[in-house]
């Protein structure tokens, strides 16, 4: 059998458990939180007072914080790209509405709330040039992304396992910073978004764990492939108005690293967490090639940690069009 056929067979095998995955890792629409739970109620007589209070607190939050908030928001708002990408993964059949496509749609519904909440908060805060933010979001959806996974479910699930944990880290750190500056409502909102991301991380990492049980060598090689090429962030084509593709992402990464929202050390830490979670050192019945891949993976975090120590961030802060320094 070809690798594609084997992967399709494994996805069909796992599909039998998709309903239990949905029950365990996703939350029914009528039960889960919604963005309006964390925002001023526009139907309330106190709406304008609540917005004024929100804006007063927002004045105290620093420039780098708003850059991180905008970056997180734009990343979440590019959700149409992520759904269309996952619907193309081998084994996901939207036409036949199979179990995997059902998973993707319900996951998308949960993720969609994140951008809705953050976008409305940015709009109400009065600290952000929303038109510039909207242009960047429009560009990002139009440009799409290239994360090097193709339609391979093994590589895609490694990517989503990593990326969901990375977004947890980012939203959780933003929550902590907001709390330090006295914005308890925003802190709570970002924290609950982070909770969703962690729950989704557990789901995708469990998919990988299940694949390791039935196709360990190919799953190991897929993991090595993704770590060798490095995990590309979903917003790596980020750009502002008037810029060429991918221009602003490095500046955004520098800003996030300076603020401590997401750093090179976090990247290494996530890699190690995945190695530990999947118990890479204990996987058995590997081919010689997969054994070499395992050896590479076990040594990689230490190597990457040394490289991250040599990173030098620019002293000058890049000024984004999204938000001007106070």
Overview of the structural elements:
The protein is mainly α and 326 residues long. The chain contains 13 helices and no strands. Helix 9 crosses helix 10 and helix 10 (216-229) runs parallel beside helix 13 (288-309). It is globular.
The secondary-structure class comes to mainly alpha
> Element order, helices and strands?
HHHHHHHHHHHHH
Largest sheet at a glance? none
Distance between the termini: 61 Å
How many helices? 13
CA radius of gyration: 20 Å
Total strand segments: 0
Average pLDDT level? 94
What portion of residues belong to β-strands? under 5%
Percent range for helical residues?
55-70%
Question: Tags for this entry?
Answer:
13 helices; mainly alpha; 326 residues; 67% helix
Tell me the layout of helices and strands.
Elements: H1 3-15, H2 18-25, H3 47-58, H4 63-77, H5 79-86, H6 99-125, H7 130-143, H8 153-180, H9 184-214, H10 216-229, H11 249-259, H12 264-277, H13 288-309
Brief account:
With 326 residues, the chain is mostly helical. It has 13 helices and no strands. Helix content is 67%, strand content 0%.
């Amino acid at each position: 059998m070809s690798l594609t056929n084997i992967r399709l067979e494994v996805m069909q095998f796992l599909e039998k458990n998709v309903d239990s995955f949905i029950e365990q890792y996703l939350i029914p629409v009528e039960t889960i939180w919604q963005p309006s739970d964390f925002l001023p109620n526009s139907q309330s007589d106190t709406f304008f007072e609540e917005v004024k209070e929100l804006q007063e607190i927002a004045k105290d939050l620093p420039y780098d914080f708003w850059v991180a908030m905008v970056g997180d928001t734009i990343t979440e708002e590019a959700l149409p790209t992520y759904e269309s990408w996952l619907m193309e993964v081998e084994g996901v059949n939207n036409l036949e509405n199979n179990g995997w496509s059902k998973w993707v749609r319900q996951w998308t519904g949960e993720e969609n709330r994140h951008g809705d909440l953050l976008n409305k908060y940015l709009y109400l805060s009065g600290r952000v040039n929303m038109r510039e933010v909207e242009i960047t979001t429009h560009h990002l959806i139009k440009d799409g992304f290239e994360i090097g996974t193709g339609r391979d479910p093994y590589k895609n699930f490694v990517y989503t396992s990593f990326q969901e944990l990375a977004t947890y880290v980012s939203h959780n750190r933003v929550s902590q910073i907001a709390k330090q500056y006295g914005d308890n409502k925003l802190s709570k909102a970002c924290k609950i978004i982070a909770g969703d991301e962690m729950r989704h991380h557990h789901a995708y990492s469990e998919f990988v764990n299940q694949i390791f049980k039935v196709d360990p060598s190919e799953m190991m090689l897929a993991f090595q492939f993704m770590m060798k090429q490095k995990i590309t962030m979903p917003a790596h084509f980020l750009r502002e108005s008037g810029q060429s593709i991918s221009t602003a992402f490095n500046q955004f990464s520098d800003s996030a690293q300076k603020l401590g929202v997401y750093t090179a050390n976090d990247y290494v830490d996530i890699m190690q967490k995945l190695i530990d979670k999947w118990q890479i050192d204990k996987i058995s019945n590997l081919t010689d090639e997969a054994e070499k891949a395992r050896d590479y993976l076990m040594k990689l975090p230490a190597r990457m940690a040394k490289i991250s120590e040599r990173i030098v961030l620019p002293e000058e802060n890049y000024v984004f069009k999204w938000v001007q320094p106070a």
